[in-house]
Design brief:
The protein is mainly alpha-helical. 64% of the residues lie in helices and 6% in strands. It has a single domain, classed as Glutathione S-transferase Yfyf (Class Pi), Chain A, domain 2 (Up-down Bundle). A 4-stranded mixed beta sheet has the order 2-1-3-4. Strand 3 and strand 4 form a beta hairpin. This is TCHQD class glutathione S-transferase.
């Protein structure tokens, strides 16, 4: 089984947490979306949306995050000799879908300093143009990605897009806060795939230095966050890249790589 992912990708974090929690072995392929590796023709032919993660088991390829996690759960079930009764409950699935409905992309971009955001955006557009020249048979698909890049820049000029995203997130976290007032985890006293979906959202808020506004203002969420950060899966998937000084190291390596590639005009 192959997983194409990257630590920067929030959906990749969700899938990797599920793999670690369920103890499913896989081969890891890191595809950095900030440096444009997801635009390489090999990956682009497999997934023209260029989105991460992508899960491959033989000829079976899955692009949707929740579908990947459900597939992982079934693999773990078969491996353990369990039956369908041990699959995630309807309530777990409802929470998974509810969390996935919040789109972190524009929210994240809005909270990145403009000079970095603009630099990366220009770099990625040049990457797309370079890949288009290398693979003319994929030109129409690359043109579509180029249009999407310009449309994203246009949306980022609209404060209403950010307002709607912030309100959606606040409503979600308020509901989580209420639920955690009754149980230790999202669904009762046991860690479930619903928690797998939530943890990367909280980690993204911390990465963007928004912990005070969105987490610390909700006491049940604070207690929950401190608890789930102790899980081995969190430490392996997220903590090793973004906890403490590691965050600066991870981001600085990528920034230096982009600067060098841009200076050499190697896209």
């Amino acid at each position: 089984m192959q997983l194409y992912h990257h630590p920067y990708s929030l959906d990749s974090q969700k899938v990797r947490l599920a793999l670690e929690e369920r103890g499913v072995d896989y081969t890891s392929h890191r595809v950095n979306p900030i440096t444009g590796k997801n635009m390489d023709s090999f990956f682009f032919r497999m997934n023209p949306s260029a989105k991460l993660p992508v899960f491959q088991n033989g000829s079976h390829i899955i692009f949707d995050t929740i579908e990947i996690i459900k597939y992982i759960e079934r693999i773990a079930l078969v491996s353990s000799g369990g039956d369908d009764a041990t699959l995630s409950s309807q309530e777990v699935m409802e929470w998974m879908n509810k969390i996935q409905e919040w789109d972190p992309n524009y929210f994240t971009l809005f909270h990145i300093p403009v000079k970095y955001r603009v630099f990366v955006s220009k770099f990625l557009r040049r990457v797309i143009i370079a890949r288009m020249a290398e693979s003319p048979d994929l030109a129409s698909a690359y043109h579509r990605k180029l249009r999407e890049a310009y449309e994203t820049e246009e949306k980022l000029r609209n404060a209403e897009v950010l307002r709607r995203s912030e309100e959606h997130l606040a409503r979600l976290l308020d509901e989580v806060e209420t639920k955690l007032g009754e149980t230790s985890y999202l669904i009762g006293e046991e860690f479930t795939l619903a928690d797998v979906m939530l943890i990367p959202v909280l980690a993204r808020l911390v990465l963007l230095n928004l912990e005070e506004s969105y987490i610390n203002s909700r006491p049940n969420l604070v207690e929950y966050w401190n608890m789930v950060k102790q899980r081995p899966s969190y430490k392996k998937v997220i903590g090793r890249y973004f906890d403490g000084w590691r965050r600066h190291n991870t981001l600085m390596r990528t920034w230096c790589f982009l600067q060098i590639r841009n200076m050499l005009q190697r896209y």
